[in-house]
């Protein structure tokens, strides 16, 4: 009977040690995940800023192109009148 109680105690100790190791590993992984999430958020924000900058440049270029196109149309209509 004494051997059986020792076996149960050893088994309980082993299960406790394994569960503690798993809990510690999970907690460390959670910290890793949060740092990965923060990094991805910063990359997303940088990408968003670059997209906004490119969109402004595209809008400006379109406006300039439209002005040039309108000037050419006006010059063409003036040349037809002459």
Please describe the structure with a list of short key phrases separated by commas or semicolons.
1 helix; rod-shaped; 82 residues; 98% helix; mainly alpha
Q: Which structural class matches the secondary elements?
A: mainly alpha
So what's the overall shape? Answer: rod-shaped
Low-confidence runs:
none
N-to-C span: 120 Å
Strand elements, count: 0
Order of helices and strands: H
Indicate the radius of gyration in whole angstroms.
Answer: 35 Å
Structure notes:
By secondary structure, the chain is mainly alpha-helical. It contains one helix and no strands. The longest helix is centred in the middle third of the chain and has 80 residues, at 2-81. The radius of gyration is 35 Å and the shape is rod-shaped.
Helices and strands in order:
Layout: H1 2-81
What's this model, at a glance?
The chain is an all-alpha fold and about 80 residues long.
């Amino acid at each position: 009977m004494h051997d059986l109680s020792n076996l149960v105690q050893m088994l309980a100790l082993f299960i406790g040690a394994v569960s503690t190791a798993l809990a510690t590993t999970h907690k460390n992984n959670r910290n890793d995940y949060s740092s990965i999430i923060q990094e991805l958020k910063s990359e997303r924000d940088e990408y968003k800023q670059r997209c906004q900058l490119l969109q402004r440049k595209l809008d400006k270029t379109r406006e300039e192109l439209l002005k040039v196109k309108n000037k050419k149309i006006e010059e063409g209509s003036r040349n037809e009148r002459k």
